Amino acid sequence: MDNSAIYSEDHKRVNVKFLGVVFLYMFLGLVITALAAFGFAAFLANVYPDANQPSRLNEVGQEILIFSAIGAGIISIADSFLMPVFARKSGRAPWFGFILYALCMGIMLSAILLLGVPFEIIGEAFGITALIFLVMAGIGALSKVNLTPLAYIGICLLVGIFFISAFWGIYMLIHGYETYLLYYYLISMGVIVVMMLFIAYDVNRMVAIADQGMATTNTALYCAFSLYGDFLVLFIRILYLLLATRRN
């Protein structure tokens, strides 16, 4: 058999194995986030219910939720910067930082449950997110070309969304909020498109990493963290868009 054919088959197995490990780690992060969100929401709902409206939190519960979410947000931001530093200095996969980040995101997302968002809408948002994620990940994994230009396009779109948000915000302050719904839809769709581009680029980059012989546990965890963030941003934006659509 041709040696190049043998090498090609081995290379494909390495790529598939590496991507499988990355998606497994990402799934683990999502599970931790979901358990933290449901667990924290259940704790607050059972310990601090409102006396008049048991489905809502009392003032103490609301304060705990707010300060916990703020604290979790600060910790997650710091953690996202410290994880790469720790990995470079120690040479080990930053599992503690990854799990801590997933827990913090779960605490912040618990507000969705405590605000009474219907489970069917959460499930629908998750299903749509998973479908979009799989399609874009498939494009990134199967593409024979470098998809780095997609990242540049996504960054340019983000900059455009930022400026549109700023100018539209000023416009609404002056002329009223009648156009708020249109603004919300357009910004949401823009963010969704950006995340789709980033997902395809991230998975394509992971294939390139495996091709270069850098498929290590450290690298797999870093890639999983990147995809985990893409998935959550996409899920939250789709969820908000579904909620806005249902209310109108």
Short description:
Helix content is about 85%, strand content about 0%. It is mainly alpha-helical.
- Total domain modules: 1
Q: What share of the residues does DSSP label as strand, in percent?
A: under 5%
Shape: globular
Count of alpha/pi helices:
7
Low-confidence stretches: 1-9
Q: Please state the average pLDDT score.
A: 83
Query: Could you tell me how far the N terminus lies from the C terminus, measured between alpha carbons in angstroms?
Result: 64 Å
Structural class: mainly alpha
Helix percent reads over 70%
Write down the oligomeric state: single chain
Q: Could you state the order of secondary-structure elements as H and E? A: HHHHHHH
How many β-strand stretches?
Answer: 0
Task: Explain what this protein looks like in three dimensions.
With 248 residues, the protein is an all-alpha fold. It has one domain (3-247). 85% of the residues lie in helices and 0% in strands. It has 7 helices and no strands. It starts with a helix and ends with a helix.
Which key features would you list for this structure?
single chain, 248 residues, mainly alpha, disordered N terminus
List the helices and strands and how they pair.
Layout: H1 3-47, H2 59-90, H3 95-114, H4 119-142, H5 148-175, H6 180-211, H7 217-247
Helix pairs in contact: 1-3, 1-6, 1-7, 2-3, 4-6, 4-7, 5-6, 6-7
